[in-house]
Amino acid sequence: MPQNEKKAGTLRRIIIIDDNPDIHKDFATILTAKSDLSQLESLESELLGTEQLPPKWRGYQFDLDFATQGREGLEKIKFAMMHQMPYQLAFVDMRMPPGWDGLKTIEEIWRVDPDIQVIICTAYSDFSWEEINQKLGITENLLILKKPFDSSEVAQLASTLTQKWILAKKAEMKRDELERLVTQRTKDLNESNQQLKREMAERRELAAQLVRFQKMEAVGTLAAGVAHDLNNILSGILSYPDLLLMKMQKDDPMYRPLSVIRRSGQKAAAIVQDMLTLARRNVAVKEPVDFSALIRDFLDGPECRSILGYHPDVCIDTQIGSESFAVLGSAVHLEKLVMNLISNAAESIEEMGTVTISLDYEQLTGALPGYGAVKPGGYVKLMVADQGIGIDKDDLDHIFEPFFTKKKMGRSGTGLGMTVVWDTVNHHQGYIEVNSKLGHGTSIAVYLPISDRQVEESASKVKQEDLTGRGERILVVDDVAEQREIATAIFEELGYAADAVTSGQSALDYIEKQPVDLLLLDMIMDPGMDGLETFKRVLSKYPDQKVLIASGYTKSDRVRSALQLGASFIHKPYRLEEITRAVKNTLYTSSP
Ligand SMILES: Nc1ncnc2c1ncn2[C@@H]1O[C@H](COP(=O)(O)OP(=O)(O)OP(=O)(O)O)[C@@H](O)[C@H]1O
Ligand SMILES: [Mg+2]
Q1: Residues lining ligand 2 (ion), CB within 5 A?
Q2: Structure pTM?
Q3: Any atom of ligand 1 within 6 Å of the Cβ of 548
Q4: Residue 418 near ligand 1, beta carbon < 6 Å
Q5: What angle do CA 547, 297, 403 make, to 5 degrees?
Q6: Please, are residues 497 and 474 in contact by the beta-carbon 8 Å criterion?
Q7: Do the Cβ atoms of 110 and 87 come closer than 8 Å?
Q8: Where does the pLDDT of residue 64 fall: very low under 50, low under 70, confident under 90, or very high at 90 and above?
Q9: Which residue has its alpha carbon closest to ligand 1 atom 12?
Q10: φ/ψ of residue 378, rounded to 5
Q11: Of ligand 1's atoms, which has the minimum distance to the CA of residue 400?
Q12: pLDDT confidence tier of residue 282, bands split at 50, 70 and 90
């Protein structure tokens, strides 16, 4: 059979099922007879010796097959179906003894090939059309052909019904193709829909993050606006009690009230500091910090003791090995992070309980809950877990927001602790994971990238005992009267010879007449030169002059420049112990 026709699905295959072989011959004659025209053409080519053209058949070319019994016909149809070469049309005789009759045969045929067109050939009216319909069901794939048949009628029926079959197949293919297209399109649409949903969720998360950043920005702007003035005010509240308490016996009736004033001042200073941290006016120093040592020092230090002092029934279980982990960052901020996590954990325990602190190495490769992709690499994982009250599901989304607190205002509860934690973690390119169940406790894991830079030994510190001066001359340069007053009072008290001026220019004039051992320079002074400018002028004339810069902004660009030029630094507001230590360090351990 011609391959191209088979491929195109246009080869017309017909099966004739009749017990009479003569009938087979009749069909063969009718359906394969050459047209007159083609006979003429072959005669012409014989006579003229021209090349014989392929024979043209009248109408369509049919591929005929024959069976003498219903079962045999059925087998051939099954075989054809199996090889994807179905018949389009079957002529089925009604009476075919000894086997199945026509109706039974058709019934069986349609079971395996429901699309085949069938013509029942019958000489008798064995069954009425209604009976046939009843038996085979109402169908448009069946015709009755009365014997003896008319040749042209058979040829026409064969042509028309095979054509009908082919057209039906084409329509079916078209429908399948359409269905496939619709399915594909639906799938594409679903995928776009999912993608859109993902993008919307991402956008929502980004928007939430933006709001968080904006809130911090707002807190920062506010803090930056008030911090300078607030720090100057706090200096008085912090330093005078120090000075007075130093001269006072513990049983003095004023000792306690003064201590309370001092503690309140410290708390207020801590809040200003937190706000400044968030304002990022304090650009974190990126130096290698031994994170394990920092935690150990914190746990042994006075701040942790004071936290535990408030919570006597809370004990701390530490699981920190001797291994040290270097983190590139700011020790001050990292200490705040540790302090806030531990104080929150301790505060969450209402009666008795344990806060577990562990430190481990963790290799992050993929994702962390709450984050998309995380930067792969080695991290130190600090875990602070408590058996406290836990955090409400709704609150979990808010704990990092500035001023979000569920605690009583006054005791703890400014709501900046976790904000500082979040900010610090972000600033150190780390990750934070919170797990909490109401009534069952909370565990917070902080991941910080490990640095391969060596932790430098810090400059030797002056021992606490020898904080007193030996008459060294100190010039305090500050535009705020209280600051000058406090500083000079402290220095005088400790045995230094202190004097004060109000501006950079007067400082220059002063040291020209009377050299000093140390300049305590305020950074922001209004009007006139600021600390950096003054320092530069001083250096140009007296390159060996020791200078201690005081500022509320730990590391602003101008402070940073002053440090690079060799100045020391003290954070404002300072406590008595801090300023005297800084003075000693500047005088005897640092060189300009
Ligand atoms: N370990 C914890 N267990 C239970 N709740 C916690 C824990 N850590 C944080 N929270 C909840 O998150 C809130 C915010 O904590 P955050 O440290 O920012 O503020 P705060 O502790 O209320 O005040 P402060 O500014 O003094 O730290 C807390 O008020 C508390 O409700
Ligand atoms: Mg807190």
Answers
A1: 344, 417
A2: 0.54
A3: no
A4: yes
A5: 80
A6: yes
A7: no
A8: very high
A9: 399
A10: -85, 130
A11: 18
A12: low
Q: Which of 396, 407, 420, 424 to mutate to test the pocket of ligand 1 (most atoms within 8 A of CB)?
A: 407
Cα of 334 vs centre of ligand 2, distance in Å, is 15
Q: Is 263 helix (H, G, I), strand (E, B) or coil?
A: helix
**Which residue in 516, 508, 586, 514 sits closest to 550, CA to CA?**
586
Cis peptide leading into residue 527 (ω within 30°): yes
- Each residue of 198-222: pLDDT tens digit? 889 888 878 877 887 787 777 777 7
What are the pLDDT digits (tens) for 210-268?
A: 887 787 777 777 777 777 778 778 887 888 888 888 788 888 988 888 888 887 887 78
pLDDT at 275 over 80: no
Token pair recorded at residue 55? 């024979």
412 lines ligand 1 (CB under 6 A): yes
The residue ranking higher by pLDDT, 120 or 303, is: 120
Phi, psi at 201, each rounded to 5°: -65, -45
Residues of the chain above pLDDT 70, percent: 87
**Nearest by Cα to 423 from 198, 213, 203:** 213
- Per this entry, what is the length of the chain? 592
Is residue 34 lining ligand 1, measured as CB closer than 6 Å?
no
286 C-alpha to center of ligand 1: Å? 27
Going along the chain from its start, the domains and CATH numbers come out as: 3-149 (3.40.50.2300), 286-449 (3.30.565.10), 473-588 (3.40.50.2300)
pLDDT in tens, 378-411: 999 999 999 999 999 889 888 988 888 888 654 5
Q: Is the peptide bond before 148 cis (omega within 30 degrees of 0)?
A: yes
> Is any ligand 1 atom within 6 A of the Cβ of residue 415?
yes
The DSSP 8-state label assigned to residue 544 in this structure reads T
Running DSSP on this structure, what letter comes out for residue 465?
G
Nearest ligand to the CA of 345 is: 1
Query: Is 212 strand, coil or helix?
Result: helix
Q: In what helix (H) or strand (E) does residue 538 lie, and over which residues does it extend? A: helix 531-541
Task: Compute the mean pLDDT over every residue in the chain, rounded to the nearest whole number.
Answer: 84
Q: What would the mean pLDDT of 291-317 be, rounded to a whole number?
A: 89
Q: Is the CB of residue 356 below 6 angstroms from any atom belonging to ligand 1?
A: no
414 Cβ below 6 A of ligand 1 = yes
Please name which ligand lies nearest the alpha carbon of 444: 1
